[in-house]
TrEMBL record:
The keyword Lyase applies. Pfam families: Glyoxalase. This is Lactoylglutathione lyase family protein. Residues 8-154 form the VOC domain. NCBIfam families: glyox_marine. Transmembrane segments: none annotated. GO terms for biological process: L-methylmalonyl-CoA metabolic process. PROSITE patterns: VOC. GO terms for molecular function: lyase activity; metal ion binding; methylmalonyl-CoA epimerase activity. Keywords: Lyase, Metal-binding.
Length: 172
C-alpha cells in the first residue's frame, strides 16, 4: 500500500460584503500581508475571466478580490461579489461546508478583544482544553462580515497530541 503524501494548505477563500473594510480588518487586526490589493475581475475572454466562468458559471458579470497571506504563508482570497449578502444565520455548522477557520495567538483574550473592538463578535467565553493542567485555550469569534473564526493559544499539534477529550466516552 502506498502512503499518501500530506499536502500543504495553500489558501482559503472568504466572501464578504465590503472588500475594502475586510482588507483593513485582516491586515490591521490579524496582521496579514496584503499581496494583491482589491482588484475588479470582469466576465470576459481573458484567462482569469474564463477560469471564473468555469467556477461560477455564466452570468457572474464581475467581482472584486484581494489576496492576503498569513504569517505562515497560507493564502487568503477575499471576494466581494455583486449583490453580496450576509446571511441571517451565518453559523449553520450542521450543513456540509467549511464553517470556520482558526488562527493561533498566545494572547487569545487580547486578540478576541481586538476583534470585538474592530466590529467583530465573541461567540462564547474563552475556554481551556485542560483546566488546571495546561494553558491551551480557544474561543469562537465572528469577523465584522459574518465569517466564523476560532483562536487557539497553542498549535494544533500540541493541543490534540495530548489527547484532547480523553475524558469523553470512546466512540462506539
Amino acid at each position: 500500500m502506498t502512503q499518501t503524501y500530506p499536502r500543504s494548505f495553500s489558501h482559503i477563500g472568504l466572501s464578504v460584503t465590503d472588500l475594502d473594510a475586510a482588507v483593513r480588518f485582516y491586515t490591521e487586526v490579524l496582521g496579514w500581508y496584503l499581496i494583491m490589493p482589491p482588484t475588479t475581475i470582469n466576465e470576459d475572454d481573458s484567462a482569469i475571466g474564463v477560469m471564473c466562468t468555469d467556477v461560477f458559471g455564466a452570468g457572474w458579470t464581475s467581482f472584486r478580490i484581494a489576496h492576503l497571506s498569513t504569517g505562515d504563508r497560507v493564502g487568503v482570497e477575499i471576494f466581494e461579489f455583486l449583490n453580496a449578502e450576509r446571511p441571517a444565520n451565518n453559523f449553520e455548522y450542521w450543513k456540509t461546508s467549511v464553517f470556520h477557520f482558526c488562527v493561533q495567538d498566545p494572547d487569545v483574550e487580547g486578540l478576541a478583544a481586538k476583534i470585538v473592538a474592530a466590529g467583530g463578535k465573541q461567540r462564547m467565553p474563552v475556554r481551556y482544553y485542560y483546566p488546571g493542567e495546561k494553558p491551551y485555550r480557544m474561543v469562537y469569534m465572528e469577523d465584522p462580515f459574518g465569517n466564523i473564526l476560532e483562536i487557539y493559544s497553542h498549535s494544533y499539534e500540541l493541543t490534540y497530541s495530548a489527547g484532547a477529550y480523553q475524558s469523553a466516552a470512546p466512540a462506539a
